[in-house]
Amino acid sequence: MRITSNPNSEHLNQIYNWLKDESVKKLNGFYGNFYVIENAFSEKRLICIIDKGLAIGYLVYSIDGKTAHISIANIKHEYKRKGLGLKLLEHLEKTLIKKNVIAIDLKCSPSSSIKIWKKLGFKELKEVEKHRILKDPYLPPYLYKILVENEKPTKAKKISKTYIELFCNDPIKRDASSDYVWKINPKTISHKPIIYPVDSEWNVRFYKNGEVIENRIKRFNRGEFLNGNFIIIDKVP
After folding, report:
1. Helix (H) or strand (E) run with residue 118 in it
2. What pLDDT was estimated at residue 93?
3. What digits encode the pLDDT tens for the residues 129-161?
4. CATH classification number, 2-146, choose in 3.30.930.10, 3.40.1280.10, 3.40.190.10, 3.40.630.30
5. In Å, what is the CA distance from 225 to each residue of 65, 95, 103, 124, 181?
6. Which residues form the N-acetyltransferase domain (predicted)?
7. How far apart are CA 147 and CA 144, in angstroms?
8. Is the CB of residue 55 less than 8 Å from the CB of residue 49?
9. Strands 103-107 and 123-124
10. Residue 199 half-sphere exposure, CB side, CA atoms within 13 Å?
11. Mean pLDDT score of the chain, rounded to an integer?
């Protein structure tokens, strides 16, 4: 058994055949999304598990700057509950880190898979009800995972001369308390960045030696720190 980031057309046909068969038997709902798998194959965004020459599992992903999104992950029915999903994810994470990608997100569909993804290290966004898009009850649950060591947030203010506050709302109300605060250490920020999933309309307030800069995330530092659905700060603004 092996995992490959370069499956061939025969592997793609094998996936098509067992997805079609499982659809007839009502074992999965991914057959209707086969075009997504085809596109990923043509763009080399498809990872497969191969057992004795047969593709028995796959994962589709895309990269946006320093972040990645998992579109589909699936294991052939008779091979499920054998830890193969973890092997796919581990292979993906190694691939992404080599490409300087440091965070992943996904939407759980079916929503029943949320327990599985959490066991694999993914977390729910605590502020989902404040997110313009993700708060939609008709959308699948949103999960994320950070792949590298990162600066942990706090609620305390004035933790250093240089720090940043995140406000998970728009606009910032007068005298409102920030949701999170991160210190910015010039000596460690490059290898211990600030990473958190956000709504681009949320606001940040940056403090540096008495100077204060406030803006929406999408405009802060000309939008440089917005990567996909994450704010990633790996240098002093």
Report:
1. helix 114-119
2. 98
3. 999 889 898 999 999 999 999 999 987 666 678
4. 3.40.630.30
5. 10, 22, 13, 21, 16
6. 1-149
7. 10
8. yes
9. unpaired
10. 19
11. 92
